[in-house]
Amino acid sequence: MIEIIFQNKKDAKRLYQYLQQKLQTFHFRKNDILLLEDQHIVKVSYNIELNDLVKRAFSHFIMEIKQVEWLQIILKEQFFYEDEDEQQQIIDIVQAILDGNRIDLHSFIEDDDQVHRLEETIDQMFQENVSFSFDSFVRFRMRPFIDSLGKYVELAIDEYKMEQEYQMFIQMLREFLNGRKAKISQLHLMMDDEVTFYDAQFYEIKRAELVRMVDRKLISNHPVYIDSVTIAPLLSISPETIYLYTDDCEQPLIRTICNIFEERMIIKPLTSFYDMKRKISMTAEEKM
Question: Entry's InterPro entries (predicted)?
Fold first, then answer.
């Protein structure tokens, strides 16, 4: 029998409900998992198959429920974030890093094997006929894990602030764009090894001409950096429709352009650009 003793009735009940939820698809007897509410104890019958499932569920309980609480405490007590919406956005970033979904941030964490060490710690605790205090387990066995969450929170806060600044930057440029009249109805933008502008007839707009088109007020009136090669000309021209040709929509510059121009954007693969150029060229030759 595995017996987990809690000081907090809420934690005992949540673990019990979580175990029931995770194990409901497996055919175990009803009394294989028990909750002694008056004593705040969760009891699980011991067998190898059930034990493995309980260990996985216990690990997820910590990572999905308790970890959020610990992160909230760190945000409040160490970094003074009281707003729940801000807390959740930062916690989402932390969890994305821990899940390996933010490769761009993962390199900033020297020791990134948190989940594996947590599983090893839980494996050591779950032995046959074991009884242990959950709160003591957290206080002594989980302390290195909880302490290390601080560095994840610090990194996530930096990323959150950068994202907030980025959103303010995008909003500022949208407002500038909304107050401008379109100079041309259609513009084609090819983004391969470099960025090349084309007009509606697929004639290249040379760099010198683009420089002349740039609204100097855009540069002088906005203290933040605005890319003078791509974004400044696009904002100055303010096309009604932008056809952007690329095979990599995840490039930061492309995401920024799409965020600024929103519904004006039409994304196409590079092959579409070459197909259109070829058709226009053939049409021109036929007319000759």
Answer: Spore_YtxC
